[in-house]
């Protein structure tokens, strides 16, 4: 019964629609009516800019971290690392489901990547930081948040199964499921990436302008 109550609480925490509340409170719009129509950090970056996108991403990650830490309210799990990790995973997934289907926002939420990352950060921080490295490198090179999220999620089971070799079977299955879930929820983004019309986030624009000027200058010399 205690576990069920925590799962419900984790879902309610995950249901906090950060981007929707921010867009309505500070811009008098519903973020879901603009851009990709998604209530997540990526669309917030596109529509409201990097400052608000970063704020939403941090808040959505925090939802996953808090949900995982709810397991500490049940001290009987403290002596069994595998059971604790499994409970934390369940609570984190409840928060992710809440983010995707938020009760506070007509069940129209985001894709859950930031909250999912918060889940992983709360359980296995070194794995999470490794995935962040992949995410930031791809974002720096491409400015596609969607591509960065996809490649970081694919790297996640590789880190769990191969590099860190986590021996919890349930967590290994979870890592594979995460990669499949992110691929599934990003089908439209993958289509846009293949067609070449995926939107880039408004960061590193000066770098791209300098690169374009150098290319134009080099072309003018030939």
Which key features would you list for this structure?
single chain; 222 residues; mainly alpha; 11 helices; 73% helix; 0% strand; globular
Report on the architecture of this protein.
Helices cover 73% and strands 0% of the residues. The protein has one domain. The radius of gyration is 19 Å and the shape is globular. It is mainly alpha-helical and 222 residues long. The chain has helices at 2-14, 18-27, 41-48, 50-69, 81-100, 113-123, 125-142, 145-163, 169-185, 187-195, 205-221.
Give a short overview:
This protein is mainly α and 222 residues long.
What does the secondary structure layout of this molecule look like, with pairings?
Blueprint: H1 2-14, H2 18-27, H3 41-48, H4 50-69, H5 81-100, H6 113-123, H7 125-142, H8 145-163, H9 169-185, H10 187-195, H11 205-221
Helix pairs in contact: 1-4, 1-5, 3-4, 4-5, 4-6, 5-6, 6-7, 7-8, 8-9
Mean pLDDT: 89
Largest sheet: number of strands, sense, barrel closure: none
The counted number of beta strands is 0
Q: What is the count of helical runs? A: 11
- Percent range for helical residues? over 70%
Low-pLDDT segments, ≥5 res: none
Number of domains: 1
Write down the Rg: 19 Å
Please state roughly what percent of the residues sit in beta strands, choosing from under 5%, 5-15%, 15-25%, 25-35%, 35-45% or over 45%: under 5%
Order of helices and strands: HHHHHHHHHHH
Span between termini:
74 Å
Shape: globular
Structural class: mainly alpha
